Amino acid sequence: MLKGKTVILGVTGSIAAYKMANVASMLVKMRCDVHVILTPNAAQFITPVTFETLTGNKCMVDTFDRNFQFHVAHVSLAKKADVLLVAPASADVIGKLAHGIADDMLTTTALACTCKKLIAPAMNVNMFHNPIVQDNLKTLAKYGYEVIAPAKGFLACRDTGDGKLEREEVLVGHILREIAYEKDLLGKKVIVTAGPTQESIDPVRYITNHSTGKMGYELARAAMLRGAEVTLVSGVTALEPPLFVDFVQVESAGDMFEAMKARYLDNDIIIKAAAVADYKPKTVANDKMKKKDGEMSIELDRTQDILKYMGEHRREGQFYCGFSMETQNMLENSRVKLDKKNIDMVVANNLKVAGSGFGTDTNVVTMISKQEEIQLELLTKEMVAHKILDEILKLWH
Question: In whole angstroms, what is the distance from residue 394 CA to residue 390 CA?
């Protein structure tokens, strides 16, 4: 994902420095070229050898170290960088960067960088809320730094509050959002539905389906990484919502319909990837519910056809994409949905191919529009998500 990208990790003197070894490892696994710069204080918490082993690059500490591969280290490394992340960022280094003080390898490199710069503070809660530190962070934000707010929790100093360095996954997520993909959806608003809906039969049972939400979540994440402002409306799943999306939790088809009805006209691209339960009980049963021959008898109603409603009430300039999951006549039935629901594209899931459909990390789909049919081979759902967005952009423009 990050092949050909260069990331500088600046690590300062904090016990949270240990987390950065995992950050470096995660980035290297994405084929990123990772360079780590330690302040002298940071080297008291974690050794340069740790990062050199993980990244395959020399870990810089001393500005005047003569054993390096660059002509002028802080300048040449700064020119290579696609993004700089300073984490954990101590109050001392935050203050230096805010006022242009360059007295070590990290601060000199940071001042020479023209790429996007991220800074993640980590310190005692009272230090973090000190007005001087807060003013310095505002100054850095004014100069283009993106500040990653610390998490709240139990700190190494035994205080409780905000001052914890964010989780490694969040730090890497900020880097991915910045450099992983071209921002061809920048300025666009995308809303995605995902997961199954649940229709209560009684306080214990409900009607649902086998959807896990993986495809919809990957679509939301892919759109976010490509620069879109994303809303994810999700049924109940076991998945963690993607970072940097507006997450709306719903349960029933009615809940999802109301959530979408309130939002869809404000969005440019609408992708309905949720597997909505087709039926719901007319009334929720209680313990006095009638039974016939010992069997539970339930009267069912159809649930709201969310995509059809939105297709009938769409505004000019929107693009609508729906999903179709058929057990027979997949292409024919999906084409009927394209016209019947007044949408621009249907993604048909092939349930008859191993590795596709519900609960898998891969999928086999056919993208159907009025212009063409494109069948994709077996791909990860992440890759499928980007293929779908590519096709949407091609048809939309």
Answer: 6
Instruction: Tell me if 261 is assigned to some domain.
Output: yes
Rounded to the nearest angstrom, the gap between the alpha carbon of residue 105 and the centroid of all alpha carbons in its chain is 32
What is the biggest distance separating any 2 CA atoms in the chain, rounded to whole angstroms?
Answer: 88
Tokens representing 116? 């996007």
The C-alpha R_g of the chain, in whole angstroms, comes to 25
Whose CA is closest to 183, among 225, 144, 229?
225
What is the total residue count of the chain? 397
Residues 168 and 212 in one domain: no
Cis-peptide, bond into residue 241, ω within 30° of zero = no
For 288-326, the DSSP string reads T--EETTEE---EEEPP-HHHHHHHTPPTT-EEEEEEEE
Percent of the chain with pLDDT over 70: 93
pLDDT tens-digit profile of 131-158?
999 999 999 999 999 999 999 988 887 8
Regarding whether 263 and 370 lie in a shared domain, the answer is yes
CA–CA distance, 137 with 259 (Å, rounded to integer) = 37
Indicate if 157 and 285 belong to the same structural domain: no
Q: Which of 32, 113, 157, 321 is catalytic?
A: 157
Q: Write the CA distances from 135 to 91, 94, 130, 132, 201, integer angstroms.
A: 11, 10, 9, 5, 56
The residue with greater pLDDT, 74 or 249, is 249
Q: How far is CA 31 from the centre of its chain?
A: 19
Give yes or no: 59 in active site: no
- H or E element, residue 10: strand 6-11
- Beta-carbon-side half-sphere exposure of residue 36 (alpha carbons within 13 Å): 32
Q: Which residues contact 252 (CB under 8 A, 6 or more apart)?
A: 197, 198, 199, 200, 277, 280, 303
Q: Give residue 392's domain range.
A: 189-396
Distance of alpha carbon 102 from its chain centroid, rounded?
34
| In a shared domain, residues 173 and 198 | no
Last residue of a domain, one of 147, 179, 211: 179
